[in-house]
């Protein structure tokens, strides 16, 4: 590799930071995303990104959501420059029925931002997504939002994270008041108080006055009670809180915590500045050829998401590829590890809200959208040079199960082709009964809307009408050690055994309670909520 190319790669990697936001619906992800774009200069006035919040409410009809949003309810990638850094925000679906997409997006993210509503604290969807981040051991930044409304106390919120997630917290900033009395935050990095002024609907960046703790103006700018409360809180923090430890943050064991209000822009810029300082740059990844550094000169990447356009006039599919090493160039020809075929990557796209720009080059940490004429499946690796295969993307425990039936035997072929392609695309997981006589595929999903998508697409793209028969299970666990391990424990009650797409045993349970019962009856039986990688 020429030194010039090496420097080019190094510079690009140094510059890049990517992240995804994990949150429960309504915590303010859309609002925060928009405000980050505002501060990043990617938009000039909040509201420019199409009002997705209002579309999100049409939960009853996913097609309608799809049409309104133009491209898809699934993720896009937002890229913007801020203080000489290039930030890639891997946007995740707002609707929790599509959280499988969020799980996969997290596989492509180097950092995560855990967004919580400060009045509610930890919520179910956030807990689930947190577990995925923990598995990947990526840095997690916490942003408590909506401090402009009555909230739980900051110490209580930190305690919840420590106790329930077992994650150490380090408050990088601290709120001054809350609700109508939310005046600003104290930044522990610079030891400055930032007082904000609200702007009309938070359209523009908030006016920010920064003063030191000892500044005599404090008395007139800040209510006495708020000032004493702040001093008291800071004493507690300094006294019992842990020391800042960047190493622990990078290992995902300590979370830097921020308080603010995305709607009024309070604390957003301080968060962004600290994020840039602490976030991990694109790093090494495990592959069949060992751990590969981003500066490995050959291009490699993996598909973490496929997205189909529902508009029948533009029925294109886009494969989202996370660039891991080397440099991507438009029209380059790469190898496709799973099939061994050569693929020319023409018309690569970069997605920003609804506009698709063509990308000429991309570097590690970037995401590119490739037109996918049925070539790519979730987890596929593409590469130049010697053969490389990344670890793949795990499947997570589905929560809804249903038989999918094809009432028309003459449509047998189309039905199976459709089911298999939709599985590869990651629209749904497929399982089969362990009883050979029951051949109908079992759809396994995280959200009900996934079923609707599958049925709709089978009808529209494969011309097959199908019936769904719901099954009464809500928990799935893969049996580690396979069929052999399962045989050893003998007959199990209150669970049913099915096979995943690769013929591996999976136990389905009606509820968590039944699962716990089996675990306590058979402590040797090792079960996993995440499918083992590979086939
Ligand atoms: P989501 O993507 O996480 O689902 O949340 P979204 O940003 O759509 O925000 C959910 C609701 O919370 C919105 O109100 C939004 O305005 C509000 N919100 C977001 N950040 C803040 C904040 O910092 N403070 C306060 N007080 N509210 C916030 P909505 O009434 O559902 O929609 P809209 O009519 O305001 O658009």
Automatic annotation (TrEMBL):
InterPro entries reported for this sequence: EF-G-like_DII, EFG_III/V, G_TR_CS, P-loop_NTPase, PrfC, RF3_C, RF3_dom_3_sf, RF3_GTP-bd
Residues holding GTP: 23-30, 91-95, 145-148
Keyword annotations: Cytoplasm, GTP-binding, Nucleotide-binding, Protein biosynthesis
Signal peptide per UniProt: none
Location(s), subcellular: Cytoplasm
All copies of domain Tr-type G, residue ranges: 14-283
Keyword Zinc-finger belongs to the record: no
Major localization listed first in the record, in broad terms: cytoplasm
NCBIfam families in UniProt: prfC, PRK00741.1, small_GTP
UniProt xrefs under PANTHER family: PEPTIDE CHAIN RELEASE FACTOR RF3
Family under the similarity heading: Belongs to the TRAFAC class translation factor GTPase superfamily. Classic translation factor GTPase family. PrfC subfamily.
Function description: Increases the formation of ribosomal termination complexes and stimulates activities of RF-1 and RF-2. It binds guanine nucleotides and has strong preference for UGA stop codons. It may interact directly with the ribosome. The stimulation of RF-1 and RF-2 is significantly reduced by GTP and GDP, but not by GMP.
UniProt xrefs under HAMAP family: Rel_fac_3
Protein name: Peptide chain release factor 3
Species for this entry: Geitlerinema calcuttense NRMC-F 0142
């Amino acid at each position: 590799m020429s030194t010039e190319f090496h420097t080019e790669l190094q510079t690009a990697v140094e510059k890049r930071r990517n992240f995804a936001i994990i949150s429960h619906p309504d915590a303010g992800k859309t609002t925060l995303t928009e405000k980050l774009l505002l501060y990043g200069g990617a938009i000039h006035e909040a509201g420019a990104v199409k009002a997705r919040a209002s579309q999100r409410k049409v939960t009853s009809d996913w097609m309608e959501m799809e049409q309104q949003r133009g491209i898809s309810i699934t993720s896009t990638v937002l890229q913007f420059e801020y203080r000489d850094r290039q930030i890639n925000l891997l946007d995740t679906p707002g609707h929790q029925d599509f959280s499988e997409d969020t799980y996969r997006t997290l596989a492509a993210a180097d950092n995560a931002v855990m967004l919580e509503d400060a009045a509610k604290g930890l919520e179910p969807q956030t807990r689930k997504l947190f577990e995925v981040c923990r598995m990947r051991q990526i840095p997690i930044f916490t942003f408590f939002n909506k401090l402009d409304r009555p909230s739980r106390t900051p110490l209580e919120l930190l305690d919840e994270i420590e106790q329930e997630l077992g994650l150490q917290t380090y408050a990088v900033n601290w709120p001054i008041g809350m609700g109508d009395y939310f005046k600003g935050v104290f930044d522990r990095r610079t030891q400055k108080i930032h007082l904000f002024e609200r702007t009309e609907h938070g359209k523009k960046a908030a006016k920010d006055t920064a003063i030191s703790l000892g500044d005599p103006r404090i008395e007139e700018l800040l209510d006495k009670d708020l000032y004493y409360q702040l001093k008291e809180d800071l004493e507690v923090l300094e006294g019992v809180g842990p020391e800042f430890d960047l190493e622990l943050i990078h290992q995902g064991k300590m979370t830097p915590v921020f308080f603010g209000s995305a709607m009024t822009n309070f604390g957003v810029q301080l968060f962004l500045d600290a994020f840039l300082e602490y976030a991990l740059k694109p790093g090494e990844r495990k592959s069949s050829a060992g751990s590969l550094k981003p500066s490995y000169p050959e291009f490699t990447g993996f598909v973490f998401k496929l997205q189909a356009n529902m508009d029948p006039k533009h029925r294109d599919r886009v494969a989202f590829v996370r660039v891991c090493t080397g440099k991507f160039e438009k029209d380059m020809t790469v190898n496709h590890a799973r099939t061994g075929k050569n693929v020319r990557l023409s018309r690569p796209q970069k997605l920003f809200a609804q506009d698709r720009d063509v990308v000429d080059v991309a570097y590690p940490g970037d995401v590119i959208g490739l037109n996918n004429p049925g070539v790519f499946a979730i987890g596929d690796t593409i590469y130049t040079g010697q053969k490389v295969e990344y670890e793949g993307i795990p499947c997570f425990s589905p929560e809804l199960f249903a038989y999918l039936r094809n009432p028309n035997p003459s449509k047998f072929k189309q039905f199976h082709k459709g089911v298999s392609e939709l599985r590869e695309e990651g629209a749904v997981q497929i399982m089969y009964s362990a009883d050979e006589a029951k051949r109908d595929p079992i759809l396994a999903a995280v959200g009900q809307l996934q079923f609707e998508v599958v049925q709709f697409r089978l009808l529209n793209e494969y011309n097959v009408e199908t019936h769904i028969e719901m099954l009464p299970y809500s928990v799935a666990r893969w049996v580690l050690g396979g069929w052999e391990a399962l045989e050893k424990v003998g007959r199990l009650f209150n669970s049913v055994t099915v096979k995943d797409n690769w013929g591996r045993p999976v136990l389905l349970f009606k509820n968590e309670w039944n699962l716990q019962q089996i675990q306590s009856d058979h402590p040797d039986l090792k079960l996993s909520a995440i499918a083992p990688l590979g086939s």
